[in-house]
């Protein structure tokens, strides 16, 4: 079974280094979600049923789902120890970086450059009769705006990946017909109760 990567230290530097942020999300998705079929296959114990020589006497129809169901205990263990923690780790990183994207950024290295470009654009004389393109000005995007756009995209990707993964898990394990986010919320609730000594 794949090992999920360690959660990186949550700092604004991680969020603004979009390459590092994307790499963490990609590696985490690759370890669990992109290889979900292999991870589920690894839960099956080969030879759990003893070989029956009479089974070769006639052709056996393929099961309707074409995949054998997995032991419910192994499924629950996989969901509790691998799948949900991986999803939660990515949610934590995305939520933290979304907070960074909506916070003021006093350390923005391009802020002075953007302000000078904006001032120059305001001082320009625009005569669209002489130059129809003279009114064009595309302000430079702040790194918080760029980060917010990246987080929106990554959240949409996360929804798609989780739905696909949960569908494949549902084919092999019992999901009791609940959606991926509800199952994750239920896991969070159970985890919070187990950490709370007063409950």
From TrEMBL:
Q: Which residue stretches belong to region Disordered?
A: 42-66
Q: Which GO terms describe its cellular component?
A: mitochondrial intermembrane space
A Pfam family cross-referenced in the UniProt record is MIX23
Q: Which family does it belong to?
A: Belongs to the MIX23 family.
From the Swiss-Prot or TrEMBL record, give the protein name: Caffeine-induced death protein Cid2
This protein's species is Zasmidium cellare ATCC 36951
Phylogenetic lineage: Eukaryota, Fungi, Dikarya, Ascomycota, Pezizomycotina
């Amino acid at each position: 079974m794949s090992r999920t990567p360690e959660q990186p230290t949550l700092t604004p530097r991680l969020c603004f280094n979009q390459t590092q942020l994307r790499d963490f999300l990609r590696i985490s998705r690759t370890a669990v979600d992109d290889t979900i079929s292999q991870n589920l296959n690894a839960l099956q114990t080969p030879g759990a049923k003893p070989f029956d020589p009479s089974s070769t006497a006639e052709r056996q129809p393929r099961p309707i789902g074409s995949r054998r169901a997995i032991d419910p205990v192994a499924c629950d263990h996989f969901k509790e120890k691998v799948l949900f923690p991986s999803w939660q780790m990515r949610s934590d990183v995305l939520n933290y970086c979304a907070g960074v994207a909506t916070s003021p950024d006093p350390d923005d290295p391009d802020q002075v450059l953007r302000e000078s470009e904006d001032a120059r654009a305001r001082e320009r004389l625009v005569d669209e009769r002489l130059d129809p393109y003279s009114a064009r000005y595309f302000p430079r995007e702040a790194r918080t705006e760029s980060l917010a756009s990246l987080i929106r995209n990554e959240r949409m990707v996360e929804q798609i990946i989780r739905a696909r993964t949960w569908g494949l898990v549902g084919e092999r394990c019992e999901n009791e017909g609940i959606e991926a986010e509800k199952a994750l919320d239920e896991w969070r609730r159970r985890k919070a109760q187990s950490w709370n000594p007063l409950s």
